[in-house]
Specification:
By secondary structure, the chain is an alpha/beta fold. It contains five helices and 25 strands. The protein starts with 7 loop residues before the first strand and ends in a 12-residue tail after the last strand. The chain binds fe (ii) ion.
């Protein structure tokens, strides 16, 4: 068995010095707490969220409230819009009609001197018809600057803000929050509210957003909408770096929906073209002192597939002099000692682990298993299927693997 670090209870938060650089990684998705790595500093949050009840919040609860006003923008969220952090993609939904596609933005509140124009689309899922989904790239931004933005028309317009990251620099400090397996329960609410209080500047999301796939027929779309309104309290202000989990696949032959990721891909755009990816499901961004690679556990990744070819090239683009932190996000963990989802990440491990070691990935974050766990720096790249030796060994070039724990979804904690 691989060697895993201590698993203790609470929430986890880390500050690690790497050379002169300071990056903070805040873990919000777990009811567990620890401080990883051999870094020089760690801070422990005293916050522990309740384990129960893990039931979805009723649709008429105010956390899902539709904003007032005819056709008011709802489900507002932002993500990085380019490779290096000088752009955002702003997305929102209007329910009654298309409405304006414009984002008005500027450097002071109420003074929106710039305008960007986006696109709008809608789709059906079984007999559910989505609202009008707007996506607008706002680019050419200055680094390290607070922007204010306004969307919607007339009395129904709504105002938000975001802050761009510092320039790409090995010494740029930055604070990431990390969430996975969030859902829309009272525990999910607790997770997201705690995350906002800690001042995380960007959220790294490791998959399984809404758990709407636990509903049927029309209610699948309805629960994607409620989750969008739920996440807005953070995601309209802090960019969320998205990755897809198994709950985003939504392969439902019983209602004629057999194209994977349809709801997710219509609603959560990513800047995949900026990293020369051919799919929104795998891509990379650079932010402050970190190079972040997003992989898709549920898309082809074996040798010669698009994801495999893309990752081979992307790893060559990593410049540790500019971004000393190399972070990989995926949904299914490659190392997992729980019964829950045991060995599900093994196929990706067999394909990518040697690259992670060769390129000295710092940390691989995963979700899926609803329990926190972290590894020592170990690898199993010497494993040879015809001659045994299938045992992970200490490897200084290997990443630390962290399963970030449960964000609060209705499935509850993995107990074994
Ligand atoms: Fe999952």
């Amino acid at each position: 068995m691989p060697h895993f670090g201590d698993i203790s209870s609470g929430w986890i938060k880390r500050i690690e010095n790497k050379g002169s650089m300071l990056v903070q990684l805040l873990f919000f998705s777990s009811v567990l707490l620890s401080c990883i790595s051999n870094g020089s500093a760690g801070v422990t949050s005293t916050f522990v969220r309740n384990e129960w009840p893990s039931v979805d919040i009723p649709l008429d609860n105010e956390v899902f409230a539709v904003p007032k006003g005819y056709n008011a923008p709802q489900q507002v969220h932002i993500t990085q819009g380019d490779y290096d952090g000088k752009a955002v993609i702003i997305s929102w939904v209007t329910a009654d009609e298309e409405g304006s596609n414009k984002v008005r933005y500027g450097l002071s509140e109420g003074k929106y001197e710039f305008t960007a124009e986006g696109t709008v689309q809608n789709y059906t899922f079984y007999n559910y018809k989505s609202g009008y989904i707007h996506q607008c790239l706002v680019d050419g931004l200055q680094y390290d600057t607070k922007y204010f933005y306004e969307i919607g028309d007339g009395d129904s317009s709504r105002r938000f803000w975001f802050r761009t990251p510092p320039p790409i620099d090995p010494d740029a400090p930055y604070k990431f929050g990390i969430i996975g397996d969030l859902g829309q329960t009272y525990n999910s609410l607790s997770t997201i509210e705690h995350c906002m209080q800690t001042g995380a500047e960007t959220i790294l999301f490791v998959g399984d957003l809404s758990y709407a796939d636990r509903y049927k027929y029309h209610d699948v779309g309805v629960r994607w909408d409620s989750w969008g309104r739920f996440a807005e309290r953070s995601a309209a202000y802090q960019p969320w770096i998205w990755s897809a989990g198994n709950h985003e696949i939504e392969y439902f032959p019983y209602m004629g929906e057999v194209i994977p990721f349809r709801n997710y891909l219509h609603r959560y755009p990513t800047p995949y073209l900026a990293s020369e990816s051919s799919s929104p499901l795998w891509y990379a961004v650079r932010r402050a002192s970190a190079h972040i690679i997003v992989l898709s556990s549920y898309s082809p990744f074996v040798k010669y597939t698009p994801q495999w070819k893309w990752l081979e090239q992307e790893l060559k683009r990593v410049d540790r002099k500019k971004t000393p932190w190399l972070i990989v996000l995926m949904h299914a963990p490659m190392y997992n000692s729980n019964d829950a989802h045991f060995m599900e990440g093994e196929s990706m491990r067999a394909v990518f682990e040697s690259w992670f070691c060769r390129h000295k990935v710092d940390v691989v974050f995963a979700g899926h298993v609803h329990a926190y766990e972290r590894s020592y720096r170990i690898s199993n790249i010497r494993y040879n299927v015809s001659s045994g030796a299938s045992y992970p060994v200490p490897d200084k070039s290997a990443p630390v693997y962290i399963t970030v724990g449960d964000g609060g979804n209705q499935e509850g904690l993995a107990l074994r």
